[in-house]
Amino acid sequence: MSQPEGYSPSFKRPAEIMRMRRKRTRSDASVFSSPSGRGSTAGQSDSSPAGVRPFSPGPLFNTQSRPGCGIKRRNPFANIENTYSPSKKCLIYHEDEHVEAVDRCKKNKLTEKEGEEEMSTKTDCNAALPLSARLTEAEKHEHRDVNSKKCLSFSEDDSLFEEEEEDVMSPLIKSPQAIAPASIAPPVCTVFPTDWSLKTRLLFTSPLTLSWAENPKAQEEATGLSQHLRAHFITLPHSLQDPRSCSELRCAFQQSLVYWQHPSLPWLSLFPRINAERSFTGKCTPWAQDRALQQSLMSEWSVSLSSLYSLLKTKLCPYFYLCSYQFSVLFRAAGVGGSGSITALISPTTRGLRESMKAEGIEFSLPLVEDRRKSREQQKHPGKEEEEGEEQECSDLKEAEERHGEKDEDNDDEDGSFSWLKEIGVQDKIKKPDSNTIQMQKEGQTVSLDHKPESVVCVEGTHTFTLINFLINCKSLVAAAGPQAGLPPTLLAPNAFKGATMHTLKARSVNVKSQIGGSYQDISSLEITGPILPSSLHTITNLLRPAQKGNFSSALYTHTPTAVMKHNTTAASSAGSSDLSACGLHPASIQQLTQPSTLGKTALSHISMINYSYTWRS
Fold first, then answer.
1. For residue 125, what are the contacts with CB-CB under 8 A and spacing of at least 6?
2. Are strands 319-323 and 613-617 parallel, antiparallel or unpaired?
3. pLDDT of 73-91, one tens digit each?
4. Is 512 exposed, middle or buried (0-12, 13-18, 19+ CB in 10 A)?
5. Three-state SS letters, 527-547
6. Could you give the CA distance from residue 414 to residue 435 in angstroms, rounded to a whole number?
7. Averaged pLDDT for residues 486-491
8. Any idea what the Cα angle at residue 189 is, between residues 185 and 192, rounded to 5°?
9. H-helix segments, 277-366
């Protein structure tokens, strides 16, 4: 038969091609049905033998459950280097060599030579066995556990198996570095430093509402005042779900707002007194021109001051303030502020006041000036720190002698400053300055401290009693002219005393919108105004902790003259906090007030609590 033009021997008709495909399908099915490999034909040469995976990474499929189906196509996006992980050997039973490697790692007793022999023998013996027969007993248990935890649907895409496998193994392959930051909590600071300055205003802000702090009921206000008078304190839980419905919280808040003051004039604000002439201008002051009324006011004021000092001496009052139109005085009981004796801090002072105190025999020190002098000496002679510690007592005695003998030293300096002129024989040719000029030059440094923070004066021990008598009899304590003429200084204390009037701080809550990032959020604020004592600040913040779930911030406004009243005496405290248990303050406040202050010259300007941990800024 003649061949037509363009005929090719390799050309097959469509009918022949379909016949060959059906034949190949039948031959593949016979191979999968007989694991031993019997009945295989020549058409299987392009196929993969049973038990060998020619396509993308993944487990071997149970081919017995898929009769008549072709071998799964290869995933073109799979990569053996990306999907293979040693930690997944317990789940991926692919090739015989890997199965035996896992077995060897578990036993960990065979040598390399024995391992190679065992590998070769086991490979020959198990070549004809199915995969299930080649798994060890331990691996079968692991395989059952994994299958019980996840149901795999072997689809055309291997990525499904890989994702599910990663979910199962994720808790096993997590590194300790990934878990450590979440398990290690940051340090929690439950207290803030003691601040002995008076505050004029507090502004609290919190993401939670602060409206529970205002508009108390009559019963809650009365209970709070009664608890203050009886020194009765309640314990609140760590966190409150609904502060507004908690009557105990609202009563305790009213209790923390109470303070005692003398004198008390409803139409005048008697704090602050320094640079407060504007608040007194235009107000009724009937004592300004009445001498008898002024004497009556001073007599009552002297009784109140003496009562406060008696309470301070017996540790029934931890501290109190005296605020005049020129300076402020803080009296602290023994054991408060790390001191073993009664202390008094006066700020600011002038040279005239200091000279008057010296004339009355009151010994005092300038702590900030001494600290500055010591720091300079340490910078010049850093190796003499130990010697200074040993000779501290001698230096204190010398300083006391120097204070009492300033005039004698001035005369000696005056004679010694010109002694070198006599040595060279020119004392007659040079005009000697007069005594007034020399005195002004020597007093220049002393006068430069007036009305500055460095002019703060510290009086300790029995000299505080002399200071009380000095203040009662000091004529310059009361203004002789101006809006405050004839008005005694203001006395402020956390406890009741003779002639005192009970006052409460003013609290006002407002909800505002604050811009945080690119959006506005509702922020609740609480404003407290008045002479805010250190114990009141501590008690209020302790109440806000459970009410606001440990998240709030506060801006503090300090009365400037009292910002430097933080001198820590060198004498160790001989009285613990238990000796002050009858002073009428909360035990937590007493514990804080007995600690030495660490703020130095500055005062707290901001307090923030985040997750029940304090941070502050001065």
1. none
2. unpaired
3. 666 666 554 544 444 444 4
4. exposed
5. EEEEEECHHHHHHHHHHHHHH
6. 9
7. 96
8. 165
9. 277-280, 291-313, 351-359
Q: Which helix (H) or strand (E) holds 344?
A: strand 343-347
For the record, the structure tokens of 330 come out as 């803080």
For the CA atoms of the chain, what is the radius of gyration? 45
Amino acid at 486: G
Separation CA 377–CA 610 (nearest Å): 42
Placement of tokens 């002789």 in the chain: 480
Phi, psi of 505 (to 5 degrees): -70, 150
Question: Can the peptide bond before residue 489 be classed as cis, meaning omega within 30 degrees of 0?
Answer: no
Q: What are phi and psi of 305, to 5 degrees?
A: -65, -40
- C-alpha 566 chain-centroid distance: 22
In tens, the pLDDT along 498-535 reads: 999 999 999 999 888 777 777 888 899 999 999 999 99
Mapping DSSP onto H, E and C, the string for 317-338 reads: CCEEEEECCCCEEEEECCCHHH
The rounded distance, in Å, linking the Cα atoms of 577 and 337 is: 11
Q: What are the residue ranges of helices labelled H in 96-231?
A: 96-107, 112-126, 131-134, 137-149, 159-173, 176-183, 218-230
Residue 545 Ramachandran class (φ > 0 left, ψ -120 to 50 alpha, else beta): alpha
Amino acid at 69: C
Chain-centre distance of CA 5, in angstroms?
Answer: 96
332 Cβ contact partners less than 8 Å away, ≥ 6 residues apart: 196, 312, 318, 319, 339, 342, 343, 344, 345
- 3-state SS, residue 260: strand
Give the per-residue SS3 of 570-603.
Answer: CCCCCCCHHHHCCCCCCHHHHHHHCCCCCCCCCC
- pLDDT (tens digit per residue) in 164-182: 444 433 443 344 444 444 4
Taking the mean position of all CA atoms in its chain, how far away is CA 396? 39
In contact, 536 and 585? CB cutoff 8 Å: no
Any idea how long the chain is? 618
Of the candidates 208, 248, 241, 252, the one whose C-alpha atom is nearest the C-alpha of residue 525 is 208
Q: What's the CA gap between 538 and 541, in Å, rounded?
A: 5
Q: What is the DSSP string of 206-222?
A: ESS--GGGSS--HHHHH
- pTM comes to 0.64
Domain ranges of the chain: 14-47, 55-179, 199-257+505-566+601-617, 262-381+449-501
Helix (H, G, I), strand (E, B), or coil: what is residue 341? coil
Helices 247-256, 534-547: axis angle to 10 degrees equals 160
Nearest-5° Cα angle at 122, 118 to 128: 170
